[in-house]
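Our collaborator T.R. sent over the components below with a one-line note: 'Predict the complex.' Nothing else. No constraints on interfaces, no templates requested, no preferences about which chain binds where. So this is a plain run: every listed entity goes in together, and whatever single assembly comes back becomes the starting point for the next discussion.
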Amino acid sequence: MIPNVEYLKPKNLQEALELMEREGSVALAGGTDVIVNMRDERLLPKALIDIKGLEELKGIKEVPEGVWIGALELVQDAVENPLTKQYTAFIEGAGSIGCLEIRYRATIGGNICNGSPSADSLPGLLLYDAKAVIASKEGERTVSLESFLLGPGKVDLKKGELLKAVILPKAKEGSASKYYRRTRVKGMDLSSVSVAVYAENLGIEGKSDIRIALGAVMPTVARARKGEAVLYGQKLTDELLDEAIDALMEDVNPRKGSLRATPEYKKKMVRVLIKKAISEIKGGVSCEA
Amino acid sequence: MKHSIKIRINGQWYLGDVETGMTLLQFIRDEAGLTGTKAGCENGECGACTVLMDGKPVRSCIILAVEADGSEILTVEGLREGDKLHPLQQSFIETGAAQCGFCTPGMLIAGKALLDKNSNPSKEEIMEALGGHLCRCTGYKSISKSVEIAIDKIK
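Returned assembly:
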């Protein structure tokens, strides 16, 4: 049973932000997490604020910094939009969420604000240093998307705030990225572990920039900066890659008791999937999943 | 607090005063009396409750009826064209793709959504369209085959 809480549908952003200031207000977008959580009594809002009518939070457009994606953009629409095409790891990640019916309903903003450590849209966004645009009655603030993620189920939204959009900075020419995840079953499963890798001037001394983002192995999706630092500007060798992965493992502490995979498995897969992604970007054999 | 809503299902308007907690699935089955759409997991995972909402396939068990106010819904009852079954329905019968039948309405709607978007989908695209639907009987082969046969019929 879903509780019969108050349901309000504001017509514009200003009205919505006023409603979000009230104690116990929860924003409702696609509802693919919110409704499920309410039915499971994990979420008990006083009022549901249905934000689907807010035009201010919709659309995908080019802006001077890169590509602006409205928080209410449907996952499938974001995946199919020509402007996001160059952000491969983002498309592959977002395109692996749930199933087609879920992606036609779920929103990019919802996947982010749900704050799941295994959110599939996030690793690809973090690789490109995406920004979060947050709206409140006082105006807008922009923060790095990585710092917006505070912990499992927790994002940096204060009472009265809504995530308005994410901005993907321009992808550098010649850069490439890749997303891999592991699940227990092929369809309709959450990631047991996920890895996204970005590379620019891969392995060219003085220029090489390799970025790694990990999902479902830390309290939030996050960049693996200790590993990135080892690789930065260096010629890429198998030994150096292992050294980088050893370094990033210091921050990889998957919790025990996960329903989906053991910490040992997750750690092994982090290593395997990073190598797989780099080999793919280097022009190796294309691998599925 | 009740909400006065109207939803157009298979071309006919249905009006109702609903509580927030009523799902679109409950509205379709209990208020409109259209029981073709099935309640499976009621958690958005199995696909049995799939309907087209404004042309897109969605899970009616995780959408509130009040959210669907003003929308256009197509359920399995609205698939047939006049007296004739939809080619998908025909091919499901011919292939034996319905065994217990519980997943069938959702499968048919997913197939319809695919064909509306793409009249000549690849095997991969068929699998993607059906990928979020659980079937405990068939092993899926006859279902994907039925969609392929329906594509040929429509051509």
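Summary for T.R.: The first strand of chain A starts at residue 6 and ends at 8.
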